[in-house]
Amino acid sequence: MQVQYCFETMNKSCEKNNWSNNIRIPMYVFMISTILATMAGNLAVIISIAHFKQLHTPTNYLILSMATVDFLLGCFVMPYSMVRSVENCWYFGEIFCKIHTGTDIMLSTASIFHLSFISVDRYYAVCDPLRYNSRINSFTVLAMIITSWVLPAIFAFGMIFLELNIKGSESYFYNEVSCVGGCFVFFSETSGIVSSMLSFFIPGIVMICIYGKIYIIARRQARSIKDSTNQIQFRIDLNVKQNGSRCKERKAAKTLGTIMGVFLICWSPFFFSTATGPFMSYSIPPIVIDAFVWIGYLNSTFNPMVYAFFYMWFRRALKMILFGKVFHFDSSRMILYYE
Questions:
Q1: How confident is the model at residue 313 (pLDDT cuts 50, 70, 90)?
Q2: What is the pLDDT of residue 329?
Q3: Cβ atoms within 10 Å, residue 41
Q4: Alpha-carbon distance 156 to 137, whole Å?
Q5: Which pLDDT value is given to residue 234?
Q6: Per-residue DSSP letter, 180
Q7: What's CA 167's distance to the chain center, in Å?
Q8: Is there a domain that residue 309 lies in?
Q9: Which of 28, 33, 108, 200 is the most exposed place for a label (fewest CB within 10 A)?
Q10: What is the pTM of this model?
Q11: Would you call 131 helix, strand, or coil by DSSP?
Q12: How far is CA 15 from CA 41, 161, 284, in A?
């Protein structure tokens, strides 16, 4: 089969994928479906939390911010990645390539920052409920959200525009990887380890430890609740109220723990390959790396599905959005769940 190039008239142009329509069309259908599902699902989460006053809680504000991250990923990153993945060509210019790559890394990193702060929120809610309201207040949540956006932005765009990601492997990159019409997510040995540690491994380990402790405390509380069933009658109502609150907090922790697990499963292949690929002489095929990127993107698609599965309030809010009831007078005060 004759080799085709992204830009036939330019020297050192990248080779274009010679896939038949039997491969190209299903890829476009899958990726477009993923993009639309990501945008629609996360937009529903954003509208639900922003519109209904009952959902204006610290945890939900963090979820709202994280849904915004996922929505922006679906809007501004995934469509261009789709063309690059199917065609193996970048038609949008070198400067926009850097903007796209920086935005991709920023939003991916911002997701795990949000999850890290959500795990801290759940820790205080379950393990230290008496001091939860004093520690996780509006100012604290705002600081968490700003940190989750600003630090990943500085890290991602600083690394890409200063070309720190190729530092130490410049010769290999420009001689073996770089070509006209390409936009590659490339990391040297040092930058691959640093990026993976800061964006994934360190926050991931911290979250696993926090949720492990939450699980242990929750089990201890469950045993305490079971033992308390034989206490005297006048304390029953108080125990029921306290135990109901604890059950709600544990369910929220379980839900967000599932979200964290989905994140780790989706992004682990990409970050493992990013950290180890440079030490294996970049022997992992580009098509495999590209597949790992899209598996990571699927995390942004799955998050709203997790909310729909676990949260009754989201299913009710989604129903009201779909039927246009959010446009009714005073709909923002609708009770979606009972305490």
A1: confident
A2: 86
A3: 24
A4: 29
A5: 41
A6: B
A7: 27
A8: yes
A9: 33
A10: 0.88
A11: helix
A12: 36, 25, 18
- Which CATH number goes with the domain that contains 301? 1.20.1070.10
User: What is the number of domains present in the chain?
Assistant: 1
Distance in angstroms (rounded) separating the CA atoms of residues 69 and 104: 10
Average pLDDT over residues 33-52: 95
Place of tokens 């261009």: 80
- What distance in Å separates the CA atoms of residue 1 and residue 12, rounded to the nearest whole number? 19
Residue spans of alpha helices (H) in the chain: 21-51, 58-72, 78-87, 94-127, 132-135, 138-161, 170-172, 189-196, 202-227, 236-276, 286-310, 312-322
Ramachandran category for residue 190: left, alpha or beta (phi over 0 → left; psi -120 to 50 → alpha): alpha
Residue 227 lies in a domain: no
pLDDT-based confidence at residue 248 (cuts at 50, 70, 90): low
Beta partners for 13? 180
Q: CB 132: neighbour CB atoms within 10 A?
A: 18
Instruction: Give the bridge partners for 5, in sequence order.
Output: 15
Cβ atoms of 31 and 78 within 8 Å: the answer is yes
Q: How many CB atoms are closer than 10 A to CB 244?
A: 11
| Inside any domain, residue 228 | no
> What pLDDT was estimated at residue 233?
45
Check whether 124 has a pLDDT greater than 60. yes
* CA distances from residue 47 to 25, 120, 324 in whole angstroms, order as listed: 33, 25, 12
CB atoms near residue 200 (< 10 Å): 23
Query: What is the distance between the alpha carbons of residues 209 and 202, in angstroms, rounded to a whole number?
Result: 11
Residue whose structure tokens are 């193996």: 88
pLDDT, residue 229, reads 54
CA angle 110, 115, 120 (to 5 degrees): 125
Burial of 55 (0-12, 13-18, 19+ CB in 10 A): buried
Q: Quick: pLDDT tens for 71-94.
A: 999 999 999 999 999 999 999 999
Q: How far is CA 181 from the centre of its chain?
A: 29
Residue with tokens 């926050």: 203
Establish if 10 belongs to a structural domain: no
319: containing domain? 21-206+252-333
